[in-house]
Amino acid sequence: MLLAPPILLSQRKTETDDDWVRRCIHVDKYRDFPVNNLGAWHGGVHIPHTDAGGTANPVRAIAEGEIVFCRYPSDRISEDPLCYLGETDDGVVLLRHTLTLGDPEVNIVFYSLCQHLKQVRRNVLEGVGTLIKKGTILGTSGRVDGKNGFHFQICCDDTNLQKLAGRSTGNLDISKPGRSDITYGDKHYYLPSGTPFMASPDEKKATRPPLYISDTELFVTFTNKKVFTRQENPAGSSIYTKLSEAGVRLPAVPARDYGETVTWNEAEWICANYPGGSGWVKMTAPGINQYSDADFPHWTGWSLVDDDSNADSQCDSPVIQQWQQQIKDEKSLKEKYFYAICRFPFEWDETTVDSRFSWLKQDNKFVQPAFNPPSWDKFLNHANALSFFGKLPADARTALSGRVWHFNPAAFIMHINKASQVEYIAVVGTQIHNDPANKLSFIGQAVRYMRKYMQEGNRGVYTVLIFEEGYEDKHYAMLESSAMKFGFKYKKIECNANLFKYLNEGSDRHCIPVKQLSIFCHGLQSEFAFGYKYAVSEKLSVNLQNYTMINENIFSRLGRINSYACRTAMGRLDGHSDYEFTPKINESLAQKMANYFDIPVFAYVIRSSYADTWGARSQRLASKVIKDPWFEKLSLEREVNIKLCGASYNIDGALNDVGAGTTPYNLTDEYMEFLPV
């Protein structure tokens, strides 16, 4: 399940997914999570927004879910009891979502709530008890205390918090390894005091003195891009400080067979930082335990706060109070709050309003003077007008009664999306050119694409789809060696019907949408000629007549298509091969697919060029002069593979990207972006 914020803003090109989520869920600093400015528990955040003007944007469902409860907003927001501190809308939509994780699968139920909506869509109001899709418009943002904005929260009960986090109290138990039934996201390692850091990842040299022996507990996080070490701040407050970070370094393990090497998942040794340096640690050594993001490690910021046993709404948590006393920097305190998962009463229960807020009738540091009878009655009427617990179905009342676990919505969405998957697909066409330099050029480019996105830390499923025509077992052996090294899968397909079926269904396309579809093949005007000049070419072709055999909704919200075929952006089908003055790009397959899938498509209007796949002429000439060992090693590897399979190949894939060709002349050689119109 891939979650989205309730407000969707355009993602900037340089913006990470996490940064985008935070920007979409922009928070009123006085109505933040988990404590508001009056020292009371606050189960969600207020998102400042407007439902009119240039920034108009509807409120949407964050994921597929069941409509549990809706309330159509009152038109008397300027009168009591809604107008307590200013105009306040009371439109509500409560959704129940089911998240499936793990092997064997575990279903985890959580609720999302949008309160203070100005409008609620009729189809939502009439759909209570039915499922709606992610992104469905629920309504529009309203007003809270005279300000534009709405309340958004995510919560669950004890049982489902236990399923999700593997515990329902305290820090992660570092005396034993993490869960094996649910794993996702980054890897984390607990290094006990006394862990040796070696100069080399070599068992034969293990008798040599270590570079460093830790004198405190250290925590190493291992991602596809970086390795960094944390240690607990000596000042306390459960803050874990990064020592430093570095790129991933794994040992160079001699290949057991040609082209086979160790993968990241198999690595026993990792080069990690310690105070003052770095060294190699054997992560399978006794006492070192491994975890994943699924364990919600406390050293990454996660805290389960359940120490406020009072049934009222005042925050009396010793943990929260300790943070407030020890963390003087407001930004650091906000970040600590961000990853807190807090257990306190559901705030929209009219049956407990009196008992939960009775502390306001007594003098305290947040409310002075205390509420007198008239002010208390006015507040009580306002709180009751916004509440709805008694109108919920019985199962929802059971789940949301008593003390409930609340999440910062942005933190929850960012975290669950680590467990959610998207798919990166490369499609490889047949190659009519059988000379060694060209035979495996499409495969090489597909592997380069897989390697690039995996090493950039993009989480997901990686798949190469390869048309069988013209390739032999010795060629597949080359692709398989790369798949083993980088951990992607490949699948042979016979015809375009097989391609359409996989794109539409995948392993579970409903849960795993396509984020990137990259195409490496021959091309004609507005045609992916996957079987170019083969007798079965028509059965392999994807063109203007059949691309709609692919379902229009297979892509994720940030999906895109990258065509590295010739002339995908050429809309004129009877054009000349060398000269062209009217390419009709608006009628091209690239533009048609952008419109149909509602995503960007990148393509050439001229021929593409795979000439530099295994190295440009300038690189070869430079290598002869400076004797670059890196380039010479790749050249030697290709020479060996020519003897093995009759074609140039490097296990890491292509050395250079696909480039632009030269014809038809008079047209741009730009890799063009086509947006939906």
Automatic annotation (TrEMBL):
It comes from the Bacteria. Gene3D superfamilies: Glucose Permease (Domain IIA). InterPro entries: Dup_hybrid_motif (IPR011055). CDD domains: M23_peptidase (cd12797). This is Uncharacterized protein.
